[in-house]
């Protein structure tokens, strides 16, 4: 089988580290290089936790992509950097698999346009956990029958964006099938600002940040005399890696922009 040559951006991060081990331990993948803004001209094996990994480390994406002969860039960094990396990868003919969250609608539209122009595949997946994708799909299914819904997303306290990409994506999927409805009492008033959470087309999203958590989401529906709760929990970052693999294996064969793993999971 032909090897897929991969560059990982953010290799020392919690997700990046897991992705490095996954790629190194997958026979059909080659880790061609890693991109780390703090190191240049060393081998990954010189960094803690990567013993024996003879992979070059670059701090500059242009140089990295010119020399690595990569097929795919996996980005697990921060929103601004991730956007820059994704655009640069597409300019170099490298297909991005992006797990970094916090991209705006404008960012997504810009990337979709570049993919179309370059006829290159790119996947942006706010959540790589297959169970989380099912949670979103089940929520969309339930929203056809329940118009009242509140989304509660819970993450570790180092997360930079709120609400989570998964919560936003869930709200978007629900909004596709649910008539817009302003929830709660028409005269409700917050006595402390933010008590009712963020408002997305009348449904509310609440973000919890606590040490000890990884990534969790609960979608609660209510109707006369009943509630329905759909919940997913990621207990470690390995839970995301089967989705990353699915994205890599898919993107090498497609030439279009995909937002959300649910679009390739059928
Ligand atoms: P993290 O531990 O903070 O890792 C981010 C990494 O990016 C750090 O190693 C950081 O380096 C590095 N970085 C920052 N600026 C950089 C640059 N200019 N060039 C290269 N690397 C740079 O965060 P994480 O928990 O791994 O999460 C990473 C992203 O994935 C976040 O957006 C998070 O929301 C998202 N995420 C997605 C999923 C999913 O399923 N799609 C799941 C979990 C998390 P320093 O340490 O030197 O700053």
UniProtKB/TrEMBL annotation:
Chemical reaction(s) catalysed: (S)-2,3,4,5-tetrahydrodipicolinate + NADP(+) + H2O = (2S,4S)-4-hydroxy-2,3,4,5-tetrahydrodipicolinate + NADPH + H(+); (S)-2,3,4,5-tetrahydrodipicolinate + NAD(+) + H2O = (2S,4S)-4-hydroxy-2,3,4,5-tetrahydrodipicolinate + NADH + H(+)
Annotated NADP(+) binding sites: 38
Residue ranges of every copy of the Dihydrodipicolinate reductase C-terminal domain listed in the record: 131-264
Binding site for (S)-2,3,4,5-tetrahydrodipicolinate: 156, 165-166
GO cellular component, one term: cytosol
CDD domains, A to Z: DHDPR_N
Keyword Cell division tagged: no
Domain of life: Bacteria
GO BP, sorted A to Z: diaminopimelate biosynthetic process; lysine biosynthetic process via diaminopimelate
Originating gene: dapB
Protein's recorded name: 4-hydroxy-tetrahydrodipicolinate reductase
Entry similarity comment: Belongs to the DapB family.
EC number: 1.17.1.8
Subunit structure: Homotetramer.
Keywords, comma-separated and alphabetical: Amino-acid biosynthesis, Cytoplasm, Diaminopimelate biosynthesis, Lysine biosynthesis, NAD, NADP, Oxidoreductase
Gene Ontology MF term list: 4-hydroxy-tetrahydrodipicolinate reductase; NAD binding; NADP binding; oxidoreductase activity, acting on CH or CH2 groups, NAD or NADP as acceptor
Keyword Cell inner membrane in annotation: no
Positions bound to NAD(+): 10-15, 99-101, 125-128
Subcellular localization, as worded in the UniProt entry: Cytoplasm
Role this protein plays: Catalyzes the conversion of 4-hydroxy-tetrahydrodipicolinate (HTPA) to tetrahydrodipicolinate.
């Amino acid at each position: 089988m032909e090897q897929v040559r991969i560059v990982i951006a953010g290799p020392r991060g919690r997700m990046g580290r897991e992705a490095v081990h996954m790629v190194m331990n997958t026979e059909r993948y080659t880790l061609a290089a890693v991109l780390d803004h703090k190191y240049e001209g060393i081998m990954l094996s010189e960094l803690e936790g990567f013993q024996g990994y003879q992979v070059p480390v670059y701090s500059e994406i242009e140089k990295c992509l010119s020399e690595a002969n990569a097929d795919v860039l996996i980005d697990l960094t921060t929103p601004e950097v991730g956007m820059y990396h994704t655009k640069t990868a597409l300019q170099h003919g490298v297909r991005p698999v992006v797990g970094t969250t916090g991209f705006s609608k404008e960012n997504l539209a810009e990337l979709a346009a570049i993919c179309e122009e370059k006829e290159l595949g790119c996947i942006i997946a706010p959540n790589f956990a297959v169970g989380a994708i099912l949670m979103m799909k089940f929520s969309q299914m339930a929203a056809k029958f329940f118009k009242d819904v509140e989304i509660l997303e819970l993450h570790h306290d180092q997360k930079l964006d709120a609400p989570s990409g998964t919560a936003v994506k869930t709200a978007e999927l629900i909004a596709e099938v649910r008539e817009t409805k302003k929830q709660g009492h028409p005269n409700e008033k917050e006595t402390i600002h933010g008590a009712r959470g963020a408002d997305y087309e009348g449904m509310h999203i609440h973000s919890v940040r606590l040490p000890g958590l990884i990534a969790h989401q609960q979608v609660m529906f209510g109707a006369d005399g009943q509630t329905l709760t759909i919940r997913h929990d990621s207990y470690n970052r390995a839970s995301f890696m089967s989705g990353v693999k699915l994205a890599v294996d898919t993107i090498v064969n497609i030439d279009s922009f995909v937002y959300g793993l649910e679009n390739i999971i059928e």
